[in-house]
Amino acid sequence: MTNHVDRFHAALTVLAGHGHIKQRLIKAFEDNLANISEDEIPPAAQQSFSDLRLKMRYVIPANGEGSTCATVRKMSLVEASDCAAAMVTLYGELSRLRDDTQVSLPLMDGQESRVPPFLVKSV
Questions:
Q1: pTM exceeding the 0.70 threshold for the entire prediction
Q2: What confidence tens digit (pLDDT) does each residue in 25-67 have?
């Protein structure tokens, strides 16, 4: 899952760059997210990712244009901004899910909690 978090982070870096929102949206999705399969995403975020993928590829392409380019070209600026916001939200969800699944290691391995002798202050 960490790989997906990294790919979403890369997509957000593109979205935060300069240029027209539609151009950044196409580049962010195509370069980083387009080839992620829904079943590779944690179950808690699969529906959100599936919805984003649908929003980014609902137009049938013509003249050799890809479906993402055709779809984004037909979007209003508000729709493009909504898709960018969905990417940000998904990044947040995936980051939280990753943090929740990381195992925290105990500070002590079953030993009694006592101060080592060399740390005891002598009077």
A1: yes
A2: 999 999 999 999 888 899 999 999 999 999 999 999 888 889 9
CA–CA separation, 93 and 47 (whole Å): 12
- What is the distance between the alpha carbons of residues 48 and 56, in angstroms, rounded to a whole number? 12
Alpha carbon distance 113, 80 (integer Å): 56
| Distance (Å, whole) CA 114 – CA 50 | 52
Residues 6+ apart with CB under 8 A from 75: 22, 83
Model confidence at 114: pLDDT above 70: no
Instruction: Transcribe the chain into DSSP letters.
Output: -HHHHHHHHHHHHHHTSSS-HHHHHHHHIIIIITT--GGGS-HHHHHHHHHHHHHHS-SPP-TT--HHHHHHHHS-HHHHHHHHHHHHHHHHHHHHHHHHHSPPPPSSSS------GGGSPP-
Q: 104: how many CB neighbours lie within 10 A of its CB? A: 5
